[in-house]
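User: Second chain of the day. Same drill as before.
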Amino acid sequence: MKLYCRNSLVVMFVLVCLFSVEANAQENRWKKGIVKEQFIYEEDVYPSCHAGTLAETPDGIVAAWFGGTRERNPDVTIRFSRLVDGEWTKSVEVANGVQNDTLRYPSWNPVLYQIPDGDLLLFYKVGPSPSGWWGMLKRSSDNGLTWSEAEKLPDGFIGPVKNKPLLLDNGDLICGSSTEGGQGWQVHFELTPDFGKTWRKVGPINSPSTYQIIQPSVLKHQDGRLSILCRSKNSVLVDSYSSDNGETWSLPQASGLPNNNSGTDAVSLQDGRQLAVYNHVKTPIGAKKGYRTPLNVAVSDDGKHWSAALVLEDSEISQYSYPAVIQSADGMVHFIYTWRRERMKYVKVDPAKLELTEIIDEKWPEK
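Assistant: Same format as last time:
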């Protein structure tokens, strides 16, 4: 009788262990490939933050975002931090919107870009609102330790509106940009052949009567074409293609991924695939915006057919938003995003370890 009881307990213990292993594997299905995740800071001198950006310098990964009392408040400044020995340095203010002793505007949407064998660039905006801001630029020759005086971009230019620029084979730096004024949301491109000294525009490329789009991410495909993924008011991420280095673009179309009218980002991986980070949420009918949770990662071989890869955040407590993504020289993929407007969060991923499941009809797969 005692032997029977012992055997029963052993069997029950084994079953519980197997169930726990299976449940844990199921729980971690959408976390495969994550190498590290951490807050860039736990507490800082300001209560609210948003709109992160990343770059890889010769000294390592760096990040910037805007922080202050709240978005649109004049005390909002651009903050900067460096990843050193696996930990983020205390953030420092590197730009603000002070005009004179009596006038100050909020700062917005920083974008970092590392010139190959050159300066680290910091694009950002200053002004009362997205419809009335202007573009600014700072340069660092020591990987972000010190910065030049701010340069105002030419009238009508703001540089990359949210997401990183792309250096083209012809030497132009193409910046995905957009406007939110009275004509509706429109995407255009700002190109510079000399890293911010001179500029020209292409576009706008869309009619707001069809798609209202902003904040494009610029991607490069193995066949030489460029494409963009854009935030929209139309409940979908919108794409467009160029076969001539961004001089002309195809009609914007639905990408196959939903959008909640919130910022996204994407990157062309070294292996030729495209990776997008976004909220896999459609804006409800009649609403201006959808929930900013969960925060998802999808991968595509061709930029048209997407597979589910990761769920970075899935709490019902919103918001997890405005992600940025880069791939470093060692092949790792790095994300930064707004965590509930309280902190900036960083995630490092090994793309070779992602487990992919096809997305059909814009529906995130259950497993």
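The first strand starts at residue 34 and ends at 39.

User: Great, on to the next one.
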